[in-house]
């Protein structure tokens, strides 16, 4: 791909990421996190448009579900695969300019349904923070057929 095309493609992706960030902010407000107080929202561009999720905690924590898992469950239920880009929004107490990456469990769930090239944007309450891919965050994914 020539440099002009690549720049245009990155510009289009950034515009989409900003749209997903705004949606993830809204989904974050729906989170149920009375124990950790750590609200997370996630949004993806699916084959059926923007789809989202939020974290939902349970007193025993084993019954809790992360925003990214919620997002993927909804995506499968809505038959809205594939997805190629997501945005996860968090608020970090100790680093107001930072944003949390999806946890290892969520990365493994994402790898079940998404390409290693899945673009994962992280953001905070002020905007987008970082662009990474699934393979950047989970280079040694456990895949079907490995056992």
Alpha plus pi helix count? 4
> So, CATH architecture?
3-Layer(aba) Sandwich
Following the backbone from N to C, one meets helices and strands in this order, namely HEEHEHEEH
Helix- and strand-based class? alpha+beta
Total beta strands: 5
The global form is globular
Q: How far apart are the first and last residues' alpha carbons, in Å?
A: 37 Å
Rg is 15 Å
> What proportion of the residues is helical, as a percent range?
25-40%
Explain this structure.
- The structure is a single chain.
- The protein is α+β, with helices and mostly antiparallel strands.
- The protein contains four helices and five strands.
- A five-stranded mixed beta sheet has the order 2-1-3-4-5.
- The longest helix has 26 residues.
- It is globular and about 50 Å long.
- The model has no long low-confidence stretch (mean pLDDT 93).
Short description:
It is built from four helices and five strands; from the N terminus they run αββαβαββα. Helix content is 35%, strand content 19%.
Short key terms for the protein model shown above:
35% helix, 147 residues, globular, 19% strand, Cytidine Deaminase, domain 2, 4 helices, alpha+beta, five-stranded mixed beta sheet
Secondary structure: elements and pairs:
Blueprint (H helix, E strand, L loop, with lengths): L2 H26 L12 E6 L2 E6 L12 H11 L7 E5 L14 H10 L5 E5 L4 E6 H4 L10
Parallel strand pairs: 3-4
Antiparallel strand pairs: 1-2, 1-3, 4-5
């Amino acid at each position: 791909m020539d440099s002009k095309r690549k720049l245009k493609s990155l510009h289009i992706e950034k515009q989409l990421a900003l749209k997903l960030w705004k949606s993830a902010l809204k989904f974050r407000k729906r989170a149920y996190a009375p124990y950790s107080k750590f609200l997370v929202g996630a949004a993806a561009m699916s084959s059926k448009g923007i789809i989202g999720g939020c974290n939902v905690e349970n007193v025993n924590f084993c019954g809790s579900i992360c925003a990214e898992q919620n997002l993927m469950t909804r995506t499968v239920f809505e038959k809205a695969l594939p997805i190629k880009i997501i945005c996860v929004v968090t608020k970090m107490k100790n680093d107001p300019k930072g944003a949390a990456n999806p946890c290892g469990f969520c990365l493994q769930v994402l790898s079940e349904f998404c390409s290693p090239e899945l673009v994962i944007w992280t953001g905070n309450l002020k905007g987008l923070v970082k662009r990474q891919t699934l393979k950047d965050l989970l280079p040694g994914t456990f895949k079907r057929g490995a056992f």
